[in-house]
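FAQ: What does the model actually see?

It sees only this:
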Amino acid sequence: MTAAAPVPARPALAQPGPAGPAAEGVREKVPWVDAPRSQQAVSVALTMLCGILLTLLVNLTSVSQLQHVASQHHLYDQLRLSLAQGSTPVAPITKSGKVVPLGTPVAVMTAPEIGLAHEVVVEGSGSAQTMAGIGHRRDTVLPCQVGSSVLMARSAGYGGVGAAWSRLQNGDRFTVTMGQGSCTYQVVGERTAGDHAPQPPTGRGGALTLVTATGYPYAPTGVLRIDTALVSDSFDAPGVVFPAGSLPAAEEPMGVDYTQTLPLLIFGEILVGLAIGAVWLWRTWGRAPAFIVITPLALAALFLTARYIDLMLPNLI
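And it is asked to produce this:
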């Protein structure tokens, strides 16, 4: 009787385990842990503070230039219409006896040699006025009139007209057109703090001082005054309502408008409210819905906050 051959044992199946090169890339998923509400609020607040600084920088260096161009187009259209109608102000008060509103276009300056074509001059020299165009100091006569006139412009932001003024050389000429007609001025010199001012004009003479800031862009170190003399016929100057030295400090060179403090505080409180609301929405709806809702509101509040900060900066920056 023949014995049966033994059946070979079946090889054991390999069991899965952590060994092997493929397993080295496996990592345990770390669960998401929300930070405490106080830390979330601080994080959002710091983010908005950085947003304010960034928005302020972008607004001063880029957006302000576009705003200046838009303002100039609007003001130039207004001035052309008022010149055609004969209603352009030629005195600090209107024909009805009211003070000319701040920001009213009163003249236009043209100086092709330095790249100025139809730059509108507005009444007033505060920050809001120099953001729109060249500002006329209200306690002086208007350009082209008998006597001394003063114009102010920003050196960097909002058109940077003052930077163009600083390129004027002795003997250069430019023209100004206002409600009574046109006139021509010639540069006779420039001065900074400590330099002697020229003698005031006599008889039917006229003088115009262009005031802007010196130093690096957006970091002024002083005030530059460019003196010019009227070399064409002058026009009669009506009585000045504002005596010399009666203007508020905000309309002086490098003046700051502190009346914008309250709106700035209000927008600061709005930003704080948005920070608290962002944390609440984050924890209630999730990150994505909170981002969608808060982002447009925060951008609008940041832009308006930056604009009010601009209004509180010196009027020649």
